[in-house]
Amino acid sequence: MGASESVPERAGRVGGPVRPGWRESTLTRAKEIETLTAWAAAHDQPQWNGPLATSIAEHLAAARDAARSVALDPRRWFGLFRNGALHERAMTNLDAAEANLLNIAPASYLLGQMPSVLTHVRSHLVSNDPRRLEMDRIGRRIGLAEQSSMTHETATPVERMVAIVDAERATIVAATRAAASAKMREFARLRNFRNTLVYATASMSLIAIGIAVVGLVAPTLIPLCFAPQDGGQAIVVCPIGQSERFAVPTPATGLDIDDYVRMTVTSRDLLVVELIGLVAAAVAAAAAIRGIRGSSERLGVPTVLALLKLPTGAITAFLGLLLMRGQFVPGLSALDTSAQILAWALVFGYAQQLFTRLVDQQGQQVLDSVRGADKATPALTPQ
């Protein structure tokens, strides 16, 4: 077998490598659950021959298929754009397999999982959720309170705790599944927000490209030129060029200011203005990094937020100069040199931060709503 050929998966293999990272995590977790299932089955409990044991294998197979991005049968158009659906398929099947494992695993295994299960439930269910309240009650009964542990000097307390979790197994599994569902809903909200940002960034980029194309094809359609006048003399100033001084009015030559604008404007004016605005937006994005707290999620929301600033800066630079040329800003309607035009393009490009800052704040709120191990959760208090 050549080095470039993929190694087929065999029984007992983890699988992979695959990309992106969530696929690797899926294969790893699937192998872990498979191993735990085989270990628990060694206790020769009767339920391991039942439908729940079969369901665990089916859920793990579905999760692995999603991680390997198995082709659709029958095939569908645009099958490439199904990463979100595959991720959700993998995660939900792993959650279902783990819940089934908790249903039929030995009570001693369930007891050992209680700290993790309780943390998971308290991370994703609100404090007044009845299922979380029940888990809190069970946690207090087995000694999982603040600054406490599950280590005891004699075997009797452990036996009692095993009996408690075995009796409360249905409640524990129900709360675990509810927390997993809540986590998927949080992730879905985050993914939808990320997708909205991607669409907005793509739309703004297309608009910026369209403006540049208009400038290249029809430079006189939207000229960003100014015509300051001084002592009966005028000069047309464009982003990358300017005309000679001429008398105003100009009856001798038969030319007016619009004619001088058409002779001075170039096809690269709008492109240069947008590039200056893009550079200013890039500086603003770099400065905004210091305020990003980041996230353990793999959707890259902070990255998309930074990318959104770039086309927005190009567009705000163009629109700002267009407003100045239309004398929308009193006292700033007649710039004297090309350098002044480019300087204002820089200012307007950086000014996109006024708009995207609100999007940044919304993005951080959405990230904060995804609760996990990196979020503090209130501790149990013993009763």
UniProtKB/TrEMBL annotation:
Q: Does the keyword Transmembrane helix apply?
A: yes
Which residue ranges does the record annotate as region Disordered?
A: 1-21
Keywords from UniProt, A to Z, are: Membrane, Transmembrane, Transmembrane helix
Q: Where are the transmembrane segments?
A: 197-218, 270-289, 301-322
Identification of the protein by name = Uncharacterized protein
Name the source organism. Paractinoplanes globisporus
